[in-house]
Amino acid sequence: MASTTQELETQLSQERYALSSLLEFARTLTPDLGPKGIIRSVLRTVMGRSLIKEAFAYLEDPTSQGFELVNLAGFSTSSLRPFLNTEAFEATLMGGPASATLVPLVSSDGRSYLGLLGFGPSINPNLRDETEAVYLASLAALTSIALTNAWLFEREKERERLESELGLARDIQQSLLPQGFPEIDGVEFAAVSRPSEWVGGDYYDIISLGDDSVLVCIADVVGKGIAAALTMSNMQAALRALVGILRGGHLSLLNVVKELNRLMCESTAPDRFITAVIGVLDVNRRKFECVVCGHPNPAIGLEDEQIIHIESTGIPLGIVPTFPYESKSYSLPKGALLLFYTDGLSEAKYGQSMVGSQGIEEVLRHPAMREGDLGEALRQLVESPRITVEDDITVLAIRFESSR
Predict the structure, then answer these.
(1) Shortest CA distance to 195 belongs to which of 397, 396, 382?
(2) Are both 2-157 and 178-400 of the same fold?
């Protein structure tokens, strides 16, 4: 009877110790350890508590759809492969090293494995198998929860890192756009650009050429996101270099476009073409010469509400290096309003239909585009709750002084 009582007290003492050990251990399994750090901590704890000299651990590697041997102590490397595919992992669970106690780590939904712990025999003569089995099962549950939290923590850190980098990329891209416009009597410039993602493939520019002339450009790289943004920055750099030659009188507008097209063909992938409108606006003569490269046709609104659509004169940039582009010239009477836009506006949803060319004409005739702050009118257009935009959107407007 005394012996039985002593055995019960010993068992209770071991279970109390195991419980307190688990509770204490759970506090140490913080997500910042990382998955491998958690596994190391688990193995050290179990080996120290149970006086085990041999242990190993496999951990899921989501990138390779298998399990990596992340820790090894005592066991022969010849019997444990450094990487197991799913089939080999399940075979190890069924018949791993004969001298090892295997503890699977199961996902919270019970449908998959997160890894596997393997322990050699204990040298502690007082360790009860029943108590140890319960302890290891509880430890495995805690470890699985900790691993899941650690992976979530790592993904959140990676998401924050990517968002930080994308935020920086967005700031850099915004800095490539004009921070101000040339000040020329009798004409007003305004623009608004909104990427659909962190960065986008739309671009616009107004560059002074001297003598009250400016180069006007709006462009749209096919696609969205980082790849489109990189192509856009490449085009911006090339155009800025060519404008210097244009300003010096060594190239015509048409030659600038042809050379820009050749450079884009050389530096971009075949599927990464660019639609664009590039033109020279002579404010004093109120003349606009332009090349429309597969881009949505700009429009000119007159004071009598007549609308003139500027014609397309070539295919997008970056497709055929020797394409014979043409330019066209337009006269701009007093009160004329030029509107350039990317397909993010023309293909936006307005109610149950697309904005389209009819919507563009309505924009040109809207009183807000004729009076008051032109930039604010464009911002209200882009941010209108009645318009659903699913792509990058850029709108550029040039308004001449009214004759009235």
Answers:
(1) 382
(2) no
Cβ atoms of residues 298 and 340 within 8 Å:
yes
Return per-residue pLDDT of the chain as tens, 404 residues.
445 555 545 454 444 545 555 555 666 677 778 888 888 888 887 777 778 888 899 999 877 789 999 888 877 655 788 898 988 888 888 877 777 888 889 887 778 889 888 888 877 666 666 666 777 777 788 888 888 888 888 888 888 877 776 676 667 667 677 888 888 988 999 999 887 777 677 889 999 998 889 999 999 988 777 777 788 888 888 998 898 888 877 789 999 999 999 999 988 877 788 999 999 999 999 999 999 999 999 999 998 889 999 999 999 999 999 999 999 999 999 899 999 998 888 888 877 778 888 888 888 888 888 888 898 988 888 887 777 777 788 999 999 988 66
Q: Which fold has domain 178-400?
A: Phosphatase 2c; domain 1 (3.60.40)
Phi, psi at 381, each rounded to 5°: -65, -50
Angle, vertex CA 274, rays to CA 226 and CA 289, nearest 5: 135
CATH number for 2-157 (one of 1.10.10.10, 3.30.1360.120, 3.10.129.10, 3.30.450.40): it is 3.30.450.40
Cβ neighbours around 90 below 10 Å, total: 14
Domain boundary assignment for the chain = 2-157, 178-400
Distance from C-alpha of 6 to C-alpha of 227, rounded to nearest angstrom: 73
List b or e across 130-166, with b for residues whose CB sees 16 or more CB atoms inside 10 angstroms. Answer: ebbeebbebbbebbbebbbbbbebeeeeeeeeeeeeb
Rounded CA separation 257/328 (Å): 13
Output the pTM of the full model: 0.66
The sheet that has 387-388: what strands, in order across it? Answer: 353-354, 349-350, 387-388
